[in-house]
């Protein structure tokens, strides 16, 4: 028994050092931002580790375990494999992932460090962590992820993926497996794989010798590393499936694609498998279909790792194998290694300034409601609160005053084409659209009170809370505060610069240049001039608030960056700056723009609208089209007459007319791994609004993120518009083609597509004819 426990303590001793340092996290972050991913209540944050170090440590542990087996077992084959799945926490009212989404900042010796991996479970357990909470591991991925990576083999959406695919060999394999309660199983290969003809079976017993579960919160799935023995069992009666012993409880049909490097330079093989499971006593119930991704170390490298007597050589080999595996994981299960926006912000400590900033937003709203006739600023021209005797008024708005877009549809294409602005009119009557990439950040209104700068989010009017960058100094905006006129309101988004790994504020509109100069009633073309000229800066201030050097200056916690706008015929050029990297779309322009993007904004040359603007249009990449739903309280006896009446069903709804709720539970079901992620994030930040999307290619819903910045779900009209957008499937290629058509030129897109489709059909006919001729 001691030989079995000792290897586990190897990894336990290594992670215990970081665990002891990280335990102070609970004390050091207890006064942090609500919803921070370093919430002290989660014990699974206590063992952070670099992922390659964790993998190497496990490989050394596996080597030790295999070498210490009794002599009678040393000739039994062993395998080392890694599996993707979800580590499920033992806590919470619902099954949830052990760690919430996103990279984590952990204070180590007083310095915040970003970690992407956390050891959650070691089996067999070492003595030091015998009382640690135990997690469960649910293997498997969603159907959408399975098809994304396997429907055409390895994806080639990026040049990097295409290069990788050219270096891989692909083998298809199908087998039927009968599983027994005593851990034995009988495997029958299909020969050929596409047929139902079963070859001779072989029987074996698989025993798990060592397991380490590693949480990867910044990736879609977690990781299980496992060492297991496979003991063959002699059975000469397995020529036919009809001869198998009685007593099997599960039958699994595995359809697998295996990928390995052609040049054999990688020792790991990737197995992507569709598994159809049925039970012996299942009756008329349909079979269950699941999807798995596993990476197995080659038998030759496994034996080399175990048998070498040179410890230094074994450690060097383990390090190389760990590096290989982590590289593969980054292609299949990419880690978003940049912190989320909320990690860089904190609640604004000045409650009076927060009240004043929210009140200034109320001033904007009442100004619009008065037909732009009544302006009673909450902020005095010199800063601070305006006196009532001077016409000041500080009342919060009833809702968020930011302008909100509606979904772009195919019929809007001609509308945008016809509305090209005429620059010769000096902007006085042009009604064209300005186009920009849709920044995938968090929306804020930036209000300058004179004393400080306050970030107002969508919920501030209800929560009475606002935000500012985490303090680098007493005033995080000391570099520009004195130069900007009090009462200025900028509209924009906080987004993370992916290259520099720091937040920036993308400014896309100006609502007020000062406490006495609202400009939101002007056409956008004029507001854009104010933005480019930075008219809200005091004369002779001598400060460039959009200085590009600020983006690289760590002393500036939140640099201001202008959003780029183009005429609609330049959309193709604009989108040429969008690059796909590890499953993410990133807009790159110069040194200032390097952030996530998820679509296009069509900005009309009209006055600013507080609330929904039917002329402000948004188009999103189809795989990012989402809706915001509200998580509803559980409904007793839901599905009483259905087979799933004992399930823990997630009830969701959207907003109906007159503030009613439209229950969407029947139509919106998340796969278990997506539900686990949602529950972990909800448990952390307490939000009741979730952003979810629908994949029309698989008919599967997916979870994206919780929205603590929102207090209400989408309206049912928005949901219907989103579903219509998915049904229309307006592609990037069509949009770029049709927007690039010069003004006054006929749009022949439909005709051109039909001609190209005919050419494609003729191409296929020629291929079929050539193939038929060659077979004669």
TrEMBL record:
E.C. numbers: 3.6.1.74
Domain called mRNA triphosphatase Cet1-like: residue spans: 205-297
Catalytic activity as recorded in UniProt: a 5'-end diphospho-ribonucleoside in mRNA + GTP + H(+) = a 5'-end (5'-triphosphoguanosine)-ribonucleoside in mRNA + diphosphate; a 5'-end triphospho-ribonucleoside in mRNA + H2O = a 5'-end diphospho-ribonucleoside in mRNA + phosphate + H(+)
A Pfam family: mRNA_cap_enzyme
Keywords, in A-Z order: Hydrolase, mRNA processing
Source species, domain of life: Eukaryota
GO function terms (MF aspect): mRNA 5'-triphosphate monophosphatase activity; mRNA guanylyltransferase activity
Domain mRNA capping enzyme adenylation: 432-620
UniProt keyword Hydrolase present: yes
InterPro entries referenced in this protein's UniProt entry, alphabetically: CYTH-like_dom_sf, mRNA_cap_enzyme_adenylation, mRNA_Capping_Enz/RNA_Phosphat, mRNA_triPase_Cet1, mRNA_triPase_Cet1_sf, NA-bd_OB-fold
One GO BP annotation of this record: mRNA processing
Polar residues compositional bias, start-end: 27-44
Chain segments carrying region Disordered: 1-50
Protein name, per record: mRNA 5'-phosphatase
């Amino acid at each position: 028994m001691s030989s079995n426990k000792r290897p586990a303590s190897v990894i336990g001793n290594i992670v215990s050092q970081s665990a002891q340092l990280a335990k102070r996290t609970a004390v050091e972050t207890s006064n942090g931002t609500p919803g921070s991913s370093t919430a002290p209540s989660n014990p699974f944050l206590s063992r952070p580790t670099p992922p390659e170090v964790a993998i190497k440590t496990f490989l050394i542990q596996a080597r030790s375990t295999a070498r210490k087996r009794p002599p009678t077992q040393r000739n039994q084959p062993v395998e080392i494999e890694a599996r993707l799945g979800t580590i499920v926490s033992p806590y919470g009212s619902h099954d949830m992932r052990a760690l919430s989404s996103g990279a984590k900042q952990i204070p180590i010796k007083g310095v915040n460090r970003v970690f992407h991996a956390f050891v959650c479970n070691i089996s067999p357990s070492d003595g030091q962590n015998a009382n640690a909470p135990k997690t469960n591991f649910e293997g498997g991925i969603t159907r959408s992820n399975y098809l994304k990576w396997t429907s055409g083999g390895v994806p080639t959406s990026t040049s990097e993926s295409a290069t990788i695919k050219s270096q891989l060999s692909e083998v298809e394999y199908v087998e039927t497996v009968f599983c027994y309660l005593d851990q034995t199983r009988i495997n029958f290969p299909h020969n050929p794989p596409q047929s139902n003809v079963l070859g001779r079976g072989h029987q074996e017993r698989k025993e798990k010798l060592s397991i380490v579960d590693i949480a990867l919160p910044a990736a879609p799935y977690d990781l299980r590393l496992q060492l297991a023995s496979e003991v063959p069992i002699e059975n000469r009666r397995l020529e036919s499936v009809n001869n198998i012993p009685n007593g099997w409880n599960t039958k699994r049909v595995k359809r697998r694609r295996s990928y390995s490097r052609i040049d054999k330079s990688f020792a790991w093989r990737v197995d992507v498998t569709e598994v159809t499971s049925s039970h012996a006593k299942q009756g008329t119930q349909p079979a269950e279909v699941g999807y798995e991704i596993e990476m197995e170390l080659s038998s030759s490298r496994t034996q080399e790792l175990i048998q070498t007597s040179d410890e230094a050589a074994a450690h060097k080999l383990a390090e190389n194998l760990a590096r290989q595996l982590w590289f593969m994981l980054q292609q299949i299960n990419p880690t978003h290694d940049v912190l989320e926006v909320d990690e860089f912000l904190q609640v604004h400590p000045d409650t009076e300034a927060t009240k004043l900033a929210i009140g200034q937003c109320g001033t904007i709203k009442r100004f619009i409601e008065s037909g732009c006739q009544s302006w009673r600023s909450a902020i005095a021209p010199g800063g601070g609160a305006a006196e009532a005797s001077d016409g000041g008024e500080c009342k919060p708005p009833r809702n968020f005053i930011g302008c909100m877009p509606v979904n772009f549809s195919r019929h809007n294409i001609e509308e945008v084409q016809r509305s090209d602005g005429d620059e010769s009119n000096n902007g006085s009557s042009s009604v064209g659209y300005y186009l920009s990439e849709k920044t995938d950040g968090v929306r804020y209104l930036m209000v300058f009170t004179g004393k400080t700068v306050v970030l107002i989010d969508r919920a501030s009017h209800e929560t009475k809370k606002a935000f500012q960058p985490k303090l680098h100094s007493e005033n995080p905006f000391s570099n520009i505060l004195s130069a900007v006129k009090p009462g200025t309101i900028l509209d924009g988004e906080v987004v993370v610069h992916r290259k520099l790994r720091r937040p920036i504020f993308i400014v896309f509109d100006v609502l007020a240049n000062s406490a006495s100069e609202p400009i939101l009633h002007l056409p956008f073309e004029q507001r854009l001039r104010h933005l480019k000229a930075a008219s809200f800066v005091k004369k002779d201030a001598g400060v460039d608030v959009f200085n590009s050097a600020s983006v690289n200056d760590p002393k500036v916690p939140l640099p201001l960056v202008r959003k780029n706008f183009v005429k609609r015929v330049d959309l193709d050029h604009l989108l040429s700056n969008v690059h796909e990297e590890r499953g993410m779309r990133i807009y790159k322009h110069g040194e200032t723009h390097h952030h996530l993007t998820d679509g296009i904004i069509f900005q009309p040359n009209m006055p600013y609208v507080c609330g929904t603007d039917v002329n402000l249009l948004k188009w999103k990449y189809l795989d990012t089209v989402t809706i915001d739903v509200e998580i509803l309280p559980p409904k007793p006896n839901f599905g009483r007459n259905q087979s799933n009446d004992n399930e823990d069903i997630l009830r969701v709804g959207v907003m109906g007319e007159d503030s009613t709720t439209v229950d969407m539970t029947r139509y919106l079901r998340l796969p278990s791994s997506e539900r686990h992620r949602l529950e972990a994030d909800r448990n952390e930040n307490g939000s009741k609004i979730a952003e979810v999307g629908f994949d029309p290619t698989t008919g599967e819903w997916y979870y994206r993120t919780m929205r603590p910045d929102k207090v209400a779900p989408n309206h049912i009209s928005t949901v219907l518009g989103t579903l219509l957008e998915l049904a229309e499937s307006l592609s990037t290629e069509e949009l770029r083609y049709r927007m690039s058509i010069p003004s006054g030129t006929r749009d022949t897109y439909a005709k051109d597509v039909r001609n190209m489709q005919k050419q494609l059909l003729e191409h296929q006919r020629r291929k079929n004819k050539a193939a038929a001729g060659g077979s004669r």
